[in-house]
Amino acid sequence: MDITEQIKPISFLKANTTEIVKNFDNGQEEPIIITQNGEAKMVVISIKAYQSQLQELRRVNEQMAFMKLMAMSAKEIAEGKVVSEEDFLGSLDKDD
């Protein structure tokens, strides 16, 4: 569906709230962009779409954090900031 078909004035939202909710309950996935005085002001989406977007955002954030850790690790390896396996395991056995 063309997104321009989903741009509606705020009066449409006020007059058709029940129908909009029913459409989302019946599987409408496209968001509705609400305008006021010809300017986009808000987006109405189903709870299912909202939860899906939150989940995707969390996944992307986790991937970004992992990639940052990998870059930091590569930098430390390049700088020689490493400990041998033997030294690391030996440090675990030491009493403090």
Structure, explained:
Strand 1 (7-9), helix 1 and strand 2 form a beta-alpha-beta unit. This protein has a 3-stranded mixed sheet. The chain is of the alpha+beta class and 96 residues long. It is elongated, with a radius of gyration of 26 Å. The chain has 3 helices and 3 strands; from the N terminus they run βαββαα. It has a single domain (3-79), classed as YefM-like fold. It has helices at 10-25, 47-78, 85-93, and strands spanning 7-9, 32-36, 39-44. The protein starts with 6 loop residues before the first strand and ends with a helix. Antitoxin component of a type II toxin-antitoxin (TA) system. It comes from Pseudoduganella namucuonensis. InterPro entries: Antitoxin_Phd/YefM, YefM-like_sf. Belongs to the phD/YefM antitoxin family. This is Antitoxin.
